[in-house]
Amino acid sequence: MSNSSGMQERKIGSIMVIGGGIGGVQASLDLADSGYKVYLVDRRAAIGGTMAQLDKTFPTNDCSMCILAPKLVDAGRHQNIEIITMADVDKVEGEPGMFKVRVKKNPRFVDESKCTGCGSCWNNCPVRNEPQEEEIVKPELEEKDLEKISVLIGNNENGRGVLVPLLQDINLEYGYLPENVLKYVSAELHIPLSQIYNIATFYKGFSLTPRGRYIISVCLGTACHVRGGQRIAERLERDLGIKIGETTSDLNFTLEAVRCLGCCGLAPVVTVGNDLYGKMNQVKVAKTVEKYKG
Amino acid sequence: MAKYRMHLMLCAGTGCVSNKSIKISEVLEKELKKHKLEAEILVVLTGCNGFCAQGPIMVVHPDEIFYQMLTERDIPHLVEEHFLKGRPVRKLMYTPPKEKTPVPKMSDIGFFKEQRLVALRNRGLIDPEKIDEYIARDGYSALARALTSMTPETIIKEIKDSGLRGRGGAGFPTGRKWEFAARAKAEEKYIICNADEGDPGAFMDRSIVESDPHSVLEGMTIGAMAIGARHGYIYIRSEYPIAVERMRKAIKQAREYGLLGEDILGTEFEFEVSVHQGAGAFVCGEETSLIASLEGRPPEPRIRPPFPAQSGLWGKPTNINNVETWANVPEIINRGASWYSQLGTDTSKGTKVFSLVGKVKNTGLIEVPMGITLRKIIYDIGGGILEDKKFKAIQTGGPSGGCIPEKLLDLPIDYEKLTEVGSIMGSGGMIVMDEDTCMVDVARYFVDFLRGESCGKCTSCREGLESMYQVLTGICEGKGKEDDVELLQELGAAIKDGSMCALGGTAANPVLSTIRYFENEYQSHIRDQRCPAGVCRELIQYLIDREECTGCLLCVKNCPGNAISGKRKEPVHLDQEKCIKCGVCLEVCKFKAVLVE
Prior knowledge:
The structure holds two protein chains of two kinds. Chain A is an alpha/beta fold. Chain A has helices at 4-7, 22-33, 64-77, 120-124, 126-135, 143-155, 163-174, 179-189, 193-202, 222-226, 229-240, 282-290; strands at residues 14-18, 37-41, 56-57, 62-63, 81-84, 87-95, 98-105, 214-219, 253-258, 270-272, 275-277. Chain B has helices at 14-18, 21-34, 74-84, 110-113, 131-136, 141-149, 152-162, 174-183, 204-211, 213-227, 241-256, 287-294, 323-335, 337-342, 374-381, 415-420, 439-453, 459-476, 484-498, 502-505, 509-526, 554-558, 584-588, and strands at residues 6-11, 41-46, 58-61, 65-67, 190-195, 231-236, 272-277, 318-322, 351-358, 364-369, 391-396, 402-405, 429-434, 542-544, 564-565, 573-574, 594-596. The chains are: A alpha/beta, B alpha/beta.
């Protein structure tokens, strides 16, 4: 090894790493960093191996994805690494320094150079969705609900991107998103219920449980936080006997925390229903809420 | 149009409306009628004036007299004295802290003096619900110019030459972004205005939409012409109901005037805009997730490329800009790129709107040229720290930004300088923190915010933030370990590298920057079990100063846990066993007799 520094100025040849698990990825990165062209071959559709499926690593309980993800990204972007997935090594010939490998690449049916990994083909695959559609049963709604919903669906009938505005209308009408209404919408618009739930639970603006007559929102934006918004939220929790996100048993109040109402000049801010109150403190807020009781 | 002797510009932004400015306008009208002044004096409800802390605000033109903190009861006196007899009412004017004489003119007030209005050029001067007033202030003249005497190429060149950069946070040159979208070949293209202002502590987009919606529409129409789009969307967050309403009205008016729709201004150009209301998700501010949300998909970001300029809304080339960016466009077209690029620094041209909030005397919205120092903003415009306490840090850039300490106050701010010191420009929130703000608690606050808003697609962001939150909570509760700071730094690096979008990519900034500048605060939490700012509940105790306590019993009355007891006119006693550390005693005490240790 003593003369290697003088001899090895220009790296020649290439190396094939078989198996794209954490070991293979690390080996490829090290080799590629030291200047070799690396072919990383894996039988599966993606590199990452078993570690990508684990939550924690033994024995340190580190998050495994946190260790793996940066390496995967590096390997994917490295100029010296060529990743060959869905491939089997068919035959290895030759000797060290002069191997000849035949790799059989299985078809993927997706152009890898164009795919962005958005997942919409997976979501929209009709074959996968077909069995679900058959199970859909339109729930029986009461006459008045039926009327309301048809109007709301009618209002939003311009086709694309309809789901969010429709759910907003339903949320406004009922104060929350009733389960049977969502099921009805799902059947009516041919949108899988799972997709509706995905949207309904993603946004803070939607609730799946009935909410109170007055919604108290305590602003916990940064400006309100540094001026004591958290204490105000805690005071209301104590006074009303509920936690943030809950509704009082008489359905009068729902307590919510909101991240910035954009009235930072008046911090800390609380809204009750449609009324906004600025420059609050624990004593003032208790008195303010008192007005809405009973 | 009738001529009026005086115009009363009453602020009707969200802040002032909550302080009953609408009610005040009704009383004003009534009083003016009583004195038969209604033909001479006009009341105008304007958008946000910016000086929100002093609301409700009214500026009297032509003399520019600035009245503040008005109540219904002040109005009869004010109308009689000033508007009838011509004697401005001094006690309703603004008096700077520590001074005795009030400042009558708005432009003489420190808060307004250093400002340079471009994006906010019409604030407080027009009624945002009347298109005529916008037009009277040269509104839509830039559009007319663009449509009649400019080509898409010259528009893009003008914007490029002006040096305007995206005001949403990342600071990408706007002209180049337009160029990408303009070059993309497609039958349909889209323009989007991002008004999903999620950063806590920032409200410039809300203010612009509320006070001058037409400037955004005009900017978008010019942009649409430049890239060749026929349809635009404005994505406004649901927390801003007034902004949504005003924008809808503005679109309707523009359509009636032939400034939107088909054959705009008699040319063949057509452009339509619709408003889309958000439903409460911070991540929707990220452009790819905003597009997903518009399409009705779960708003999860995706990998770029392809950039929206190649494949955006419905797979078509799309150009997204922030509200403030759009509002700047008409002014640049009107006054020219060379005028705009005179303002600001070498790399960051023009002005920037900041929301100056937190522990500062004058809170509100300000627009200043790039390159101004933080010290000037906090002390000259902001009037210094509340109650003259000691400045500790200023947080910029929202949850993706960082905290900047006192030693860097002379930093001239632009995109690059802020990044250098570990923060970012972001959308322009500036939260001032004083000695009573605990930096560990602030870091924990932001991580808590982001952990709730992470969409969960990337594991490192979802799980990493959760782990960080647990470590920080441990430190705040006095259970921190020696190597926690190192662990936080390691986690921060992992989140940054392993996340797809900017939310995760910058999520560690608040933690890393507080460690960088305030590591001693972390150490005193961990080693000495002490919270120097007196915030972290598990590490503090409330005490009564027996010398100062007058025995007014206000704290006894308000204590929710009955932990304080005592007799009138004798110092009270606080029972530590019963104290739940809610801090209400500190809040109500008028004699500074409650101490925090």
